[in-house]
Amino acid sequence: FDEKKIKALDHDLLNQLKKEVDVVLIEADGSRGMPLKVPADYEPVIDEDTDQIILITSMKGLGKRVKDVVHRYELLHLDPEKIVDGALIQQLVRYYLKRYPDAVIEVKQPEGLYQRALASLIEHNVDVTCIQKEWFMPQSKLVLLGAGHVSQYVEKTAHLLDFYTIVIDNREEFANKNIFTEAQEVYCVNYEEADHYFPAEDNTCYVIVTRGHKDDKVCLKKVLNQKALYIGMIGSKGKVKKTMDALIEEGYDESLLKQVHAPIGLPIHSQTPAEIAISIMAEIIQVKNTHQYSTMTSDLYHTKEKGTLCIITSKEGSAPRGVGSMMLVTD
What we know:
Elements (H helix, E strand, L loop, with lengths): L10 H10 L15 E2 L16 E5 L7 H4 E2 L14 H12 L6 E5 L3 H12 L17 E5 L3 H12 L3 E6 L15 E4 L16 E4 L4 H12 L5 E4 L3 H13 L4 H4 L15 H19 L6 H4 L6 E4 L14 E4 L2
Parallel strand pairs: 1-3, 2-4, 5-6, 5-8, 6-7, 8-9
Antiparallel strand pairs: 10-11
Helix pairs in contact: 5-9, 6-7
């Protein structure tokens, strides 16, 4: 060892070992502890008697800056601030394959379905741009602010559509798991604290169905500070206008408020709480499917099963499922 760097074996000793043992495993190229590397012209150093070359890379660098995870990135004039994506990992792997086209590729530590799909494409040297990261997003999360009768039907409908649902209300008799049996999270808290329980995902949908103007206004102010795929607020045109006017007086941008779906839901002349819930979820589906490709169920998103992942990458005519729809076929 010299400064913690492993040196090559003495040439005569290596030749002696070749005669005495069945397998000699040699690390031919290090990367200073980084998951990715651009090799110099003299790298890797491959012994002339080598039978098989295994090129090992990792998903650890995905989503991080080039300068933090790519050793010798300067050799390819890579932007040090660039965020590493699947295409860049494949570019670096192919840089090695130009020199050793028969090398076997192994991608270590893929996490989640998207990384597993990327790893498979890289290992089989198939262009990773044939898939898009957006296809691998989970279904949107749904936040219900207010736990009355409409919310109860929205929760049931959202469950059928595989939404992850969070219910928030300030009344114990409504905000409980005995009523919202299908919701993943139920909180009985003051609406002023509601944002502490909001999800981090940008594609979250917010439905404001509280019992009064005051609570609507509080909730809407909380939600407007979030990145959201959909914001809807129940109420008559008069009730909605009163809330919006109050927020404009407080300095809120009118163009921002116009993005709120209020009155909420598609205009299908719904009357009962169940019909109103259908109109709300129909509008959410309309917005969701306009802005994102993913229709992935939570079971598929979290699966650790092995199998063949089938993805629709293009479609023609009236095929019922869109681009990005996928199915995992197991044994």
